[in-house]
Amino acid sequence: MISLAGLSTPWLMGLGLAGLGVISLLYLLRLRRRQLVVPYLPLWHRVVQRKQYQSLFERLKRLISWLLQLFFWGLLLLALADPRLRAELLSGRNLVVVLDTSASMKAQEGSTTRFASAKEEALRQVGSLVGQDRMMLVAMDREVIPLTPFTTDKALLRRQIDHLKASDTSSDLRRALWLAEDALIGRKRGEILVISDGALGSLHEDLLEPLPDQKKSPSSPALEPKSRAAVSPKDTARPKDASPSKDIEPRAATQREPTQQRPPSPRKKASKKKKRTSKRKSTSKRKKKTTARKGRVRRGKKRVRRGKAAKAKGRKTIARQPPPRREIELPEGIERKLDLSAYTSEVEAARKLPPFRLVSIGKSADNVGIVALSARRQPEHPLHFAAYIEVQNFSKEPASGFLDLYVNDLIVESVQMQMRAGERLRKTFPKLLAQGQKLEARLVIKQGKDHFEADNRAYAVLPKTEPPSVLMVSDENLYLHAALLSDPQISYRNVTCAAYPTTQGRFDIVIFNRCAPPTLPREGRFLFFDPPEQGTPFEVVRDPEKMLKQPLVTEQRQSHPVMQFVTMSDINIARAVRLTKQPNDIVLVGAFTDPLILARKEKDRISMVIGFSLRETDLPLRVAFPLFVRNAIQWMVRGGRPEPPTTRVTGELWEIDLPANVNQVRIEMPKEAGQPAVEIPVRDGQVTFAGKYAGFYRLSAPGFEQWLGANLADVQESTIQPRQMLAALEKKAKKKQQEALRTEFDIAGFRIPIPRPIWLFLLLLALVLLSIEWWTYNRRLTV
Amino acid sequence: MADSLFENEFLEKLEYLYLISKKILSGQNRAERRSRKVGSGIEFADYREYMPGDDLRHIDWTLYARLQKLFLRLFEEEEDLYVYLLIDISPSMRMGTPSRLDYALRVAAALAYITLSNLDRVSLLTFGEKVEGRLPPSRGKPNIFKVLKFLERIPDTKGTRMEDSLQAFVHQSKRRGIAVLLSDFYDEKGYRQALDYLRYFRYDIFAIQLFDERELNPDVRGDVELIDHETGERLTTTLSPRLIKAYQEAFEQYCQELEQYCLQSEITLFRTSIQVPFEDLVLDIFRRGGFLA
Questions:
Q1: Which domains are present in chain B?
Q2: B171-202 per-position pLDDT tens digit
Q3: What angle do CA A497, A502, A506 make, to 5 degrees?
Q4: Which is the most buried residue in A245, A333, A371, A684, by most CB within 10 A?
Q5: ∠ CA(A456), CA(A459), CA(A462), 5° rounding?
Q6: Contacting B residues, span 194-223, partner chain A, CB-CB under 8 Å
Q7: Chain B residues with beta carbon closer than 8 angstroms to that of A31
Q8: What is the complex's ipTM, to 2 decimals?
C-alpha cells in the first residue's frame, strides 16, 4: 500500500548503515567528559562501583538513549524516502512545464539573467519528480515547441533544459496553454507550470494581473497594442518629416506593414466582443441541435452554459477575448472540427481554463529600448531611403543617451536622446543613400537604468535594385518619356513601332505604346499602353461601338505593389478599349465589371496592359503617373513580386523571394545568436524561414548573396516588468490541484483523509522524538 | 588578622567563654582552672596526717584540739590548661571558596582566643602529610597575635596522613591537655589510628568535622571525570540524580561511622557544615554541645 518515492533503496541502506555506525560510535566514544574535582574520591568509589556493577538499569538508560537516536535517524531516513500511497505513485503527476524563452527573459536581474533563473526553477521541478511523475517540457516563445514527451527520464529533461537558449521573439502563452492542455487530455493529475516573467503581451491580459500603469490609465503609451516592427512606409515617406529630430504623429507608431493586420482598437474590440457573445449564444443554441459535435467542443458547451449560469447568479466571470470568428463555408463531408478558425473562436471561449500555475521570474522593470525600426525607399527619390525609429523609456526614471545609426558598421548619424519616465520618442532619418547596405540602429544609454539589452539594437537591410533596362516601342510620346526620365535608375531606349522587330539587344522590360509585336515572345516583361487587338496576350476589343466611353474608375487594387502610392479614383478617361479578364489576370483598375488595367503573371512572362490612350486621359498630368510607371517597372523587374521588406520580425514566418536559379539556400544566423547555419531548399523561387534572433541573416547560394535584418521591435517584450497571474485564476488552479491531490482511506464506511505529504508528518514525529530525547537528557533521565 | 576574623562584639562574647575539660589536667602555672594537684589554692580539698616537714601553717588546730592529732589541711591547687588546636591543612581542606580550611582557621582562632582569655595555654599544630607547623604553648591574651600570625602562614601540603601526624604530635608534646582536632577526616588510611593515639596519651579530644554542602550537591550532571583533589586519582562516571543521592547517603554513612567511633571512644564530635555561620558554631553549637561554657 505504501511505497517509497524518494531516495532509492541503496541510498537508504547506505545512509542507514552509516547513521547506525556513526551514532553507535559516538555512543561508544561517549562525550568528552567534564572534569569535577572532589575532595575524597574513595567515597565516590563506593557509590560508583555499586552503581556501575549493580545497576543494569543505568546501562539500559544509555541503551534507551542510543535507541532513541537510532529511531530518530530511522524516521529521518523514512522521511527522505518519501513514502507515498502506492495508488498515488502508480498514477503519478503529469506535469507540463512551459519555459518562457522569449526575449524579455534575457533581462538582467543582478548578476544573472531571468532565463538562467527560469532554467534553475525548471531543474528544481525536474528534481521534484518522484515515482511515476512525468514531465513534459515545452519551450515557449513565438513558437511553442514541445521538447520532450511526458517522461520520467530526468537526465533527458535536464539535458533539454541545459540546451535551451532564449530567443529574440515574443511569447505566445495562449498557444502554449492549448498545447499543454491538449497534451493533458486523458491524463490524470495534470498540472501546468509556466515559468516566465509574465511579460507575455497584450494577448494575455485576461490571464495576468494588470500592470500598475494599466490600473491607473488604460490609455497609457506603454499599453498601446503591439507595434511589431511596424511602421507603415507611408508614415516615413512624408516629405514633411524630413527633419531627423521631428516626431511623427502617435498614430503612426501603431501602424503595421501592409501585409499585417492592424489590431482592432479597444472600442472596436468591445463591440466585436459583444457581437461575438451574441453570436456565440446563437451558435451554441445551434450546436445543441447538432449531434455531430465531439470532444472538446462538447466540453465547451458545458463551459458556456456554466458561464451563463454564473453570470445569472451575479458572479464575476473571467472575461476572455477570443480572436474574431470567421465563418467559413465548408464543403460537404468535411467535419467542422477541422475548421481551425472556428476552433479558435468558439472552442477556445468554451474550453476549460487550464489549471496553470505561473512561477514569476524577475523583478526589474527598468528598460530603455528601440521598439520600432522601419526603412523604406523614398518615393520622391528612389535612391534615397528613410529610416524611422521609435525609442521608449520603460523605467520610472529619466534616461538619456545616444541613438546611433550605422550603415555597414560605419556611423552615419548620432542623435542625443533625453527621455522622461515612460516617454516614447520617434525619430526619422531621411535621405539615407545606402541602397543595398545594412542599416543598424544602436541605443547607447548614458544615464538611466537599462536591464534589457536585446532591444538596444535594431537592424534593417535596404534593398538594392539594379537599374532596369527599358525598351520603349512607341511613336513619339512625351508623357512616357517624362515618366521614364523621372527615375534616374531607369535606362531606356526608344524605338518606333516599325523599327521594333529589327531592334537588337536584351531589355528587362519592353513598353509598347499603341502597338504590339507580331509575335509576342514567350519570355519577358511587357507593358502595353492602349494596345491593338492583335499582338498582346490579352483579349482586346477596339471596336468603336464596343469601346468604353468615359469609364468611371470604381475599383482599384490598392494593395498591389503597382498601385502603391497611386490613386486613380478621380482620373478622367475619354474612352478605353474593352479588356476581358482571364482567370489568371489581376484587375488593378476597373470600371464596374470592365477592367481598365490588367496584370498577368505567367510562368516566364509578365505582362500588363493599360486599356486607354495616354492622350485620352488626364493621368499623365497627375503625380500618380510617374509613380505608376515606376511601380509597374519595378514590379515586373522583380518578377511580379512586391519589394522585400527592409526589416523582418523575429518569430514570424518569413517568405523570402529568391532568384529562379537558386535551388537551395544557406542561411547564416546573426553572429550574436551563435547558432549554426541551415540549408533550406527553395520551392517556387521562395523559401520559408522563421528567424528567432535579432540581427543580420546572410542568405547565400552559388552566385547569390542576400542579407536580411530581423528585429524584436516589440513593445510588449520590451515591457519587462514581471507580472503575476490573476489572483482569481491562481486560486482556482490551486483549488483544482488540491482536489486532484485529495486522497482518503475508506475504513468501515468512514472516510479518513490521509496526511499529505507523509514525509512531513514523519519529520514532525522525528522532531517530537528529538525533543523528548533532549528533554530527558537535560533532565538527566537518560544519562 | 584579628580585625578581619572577628568583630569586637564577637570578641567580647568570646571572653565570657572557656573550654570545658572533662579531664582534670595539670599545668605548670597557677591559673583559674582547678586541678587535682593539692597545693596552695584557696579551695579546701582534704585532710591528711601531719608528716614532719609539712608546712605548719596548714595544720588544722581546731581539729587537733578535738582529736589530739595533727592533721594537715589540704587545698586544691588551681592550674592552667593546655589546649592543643590540631588543624588539618591537607588539600582536601582547601577546596572551594570559602574553603573548609578558612572555616577551620577561624574556629581555631576563636578557640585560641577563648583559651588565652582564660589564662590557659594554647598550642597550635597544622598537619597534612606530616606536622607542617607548630606554635608552642603560650599563655596570656597578648599571645593571640602570635596565634593569628601563625594562622596566617599556613604552608601547602600534598596529602593527608593523619595517623603519622598525630603520632608525631603526641610524642613531641610533654603535657596532656585538650586536643581539638579540626579536620574533614578524609584520609585514605583512616582516622581511627590517629584518634587512638590521642586517646592512648589521654588527651581530652574534641573532634570537629567540617564538610561543605556544595560538595554533596554538585551542579554538574551527565558524564564526568571525577578527580581526587589530593591524589589526582580519576574516576569516570555519569552523574545522575540517583548517583548523587547515593553519594549523599554514602557520605552520611561515613559520618555515622565517625560518630559511632567517637561515641565509643569518648570523643566529643561536632559535625558542622561550613555554610553554618561561624558565630553560630562558636556561640551556640559548641555551648550546647558542652564544649564551651
A1: 2-18+81-288 (3.40.50.410), 30-79 (no CATH)
A2: 888 788 889 999 999 988 889 999 999 989 88
A3: 95
A4: A371
A5: 155
A6: 212, 215, 218, 220-223
A7: 222-223
A8: 0.78
